[in-house]
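Quick start: load a record and inspect it. Here is Flagellar hook-associated protein 2:
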Amino acid sequence: MASITSLGIGSGLDLNGLLGQLQQAERAKLEPIEQQRQEQQVQISAYGETQGALSGFESAANRLNDPSLFEGRNAEVTGSAVQAAADNEAAPGEYGVTVDQLAAAGSLATQRVDDPSAEISSGATDLDLTFEDAALNTTVNIAADSTLEDIRDAVNADPEAAVSASVINDGEGYRLALMSEETGEQASITGTNFDAVADQATLSDATVTQAGQDANLEVNGIAITSTTNQVEGAIQGVTLDLQQQGSSTVTVTRDDDSIHEAVTDFVDAYNELRDTTGRLTAFNGAEGEPGALIGDSAVRMLESSLRSDLAAGVSVDGEQHLLSDMGLSLAVDGTLNLDAEQLDTALADDPDSVAGFFTGDSEEGGLAGRLSVTAGQLLDQNGALERSISGAENRIDSLNDRYELTEQRIEQTIDRYRTQFGQLDSMMAEMNQTSAFLTQQLSQLGGSAGGDSMG
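Running the structure step on this input writes:
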């Protein structure tokens, strides 16, 4: 924009100030456009907030639509003999477990040497390891001039050795200690030819310090043997972790706590969504201002669709079930309420019906699945909310074009005013010059006339 600071010099008028006022008045035409742009941006933010709340509700519905939720099991243990974990295959019931013997890994200590860092093997040789299960027998290659520590490292580096090796000091010398990697009688190490490998070994015999043993336990009086202390299959769907000798009682129950948590999260997510849409469509919102989405058709469709899904019953095995059967109810204000005791009763009386109500059976989807589908459609790229956002973005683009065009017209108008004011300034300057000249001439004429009269 060209400078207007020279205007008014010729005329003495405040043309700069007048042009500034005209420019301010012209730019006021942009304010309604800017306000409309801001309104569209507020709407887009409000749609985004609605999408976030709806997405949270969809996640809660998806969790409640998972059949495995209603198949979950808890394993509670009294007594310190075992710990237990149950999966969906476990049958509810009470099981008595008695641990008579824990599984243990076998260990062996070789003959002594005086110095673990001294060479004890003059030539390359083989260290033979034998086990209760002959299929585990193996040979470890020992390099020439190896020390006790070198032999230890060679054993630990051999993936077929089936033992872990360490060097211990028994107070009289250093010995190679070998412990089976697996527990159980068959995995127990039983012997080695260390005395033939180590030239400097003393005459003490290799000693099995602990024989490997299987775990022995009873479940409801039935004897069971296990090679490990983690026992699977003794109770279907339950993993027992044996801790010590003694007795424990394992009680398997349905995981109602997780079901309660999922239903509660579902109710909370719906009410949060309802609160969000209610606030955004309120006639008198924050500080008395109407909500950003008041009267919005997409939000009305959302609320109507979800209410319709909630109100419709669900058929489970040919029997119709309603929200109230599960302890759920829609309040007058549109929020969803949960009666935890009623849900407990439904789970106790007919857990399959509760599962079917939320997840559906083979012929018809349940409530949670139905709501999940509705939420997914509303959140889809072609859904009502995305279409509304796209519409608002298109309107912003149109308003941006209108804003730019209006700015150009304002500049053209101001340029025209500036040209006209420049012409006015020049004309007034010429008139002022003419007026000054005439005034001077008239003044001179008046002086000459007065002199002639006196003569």
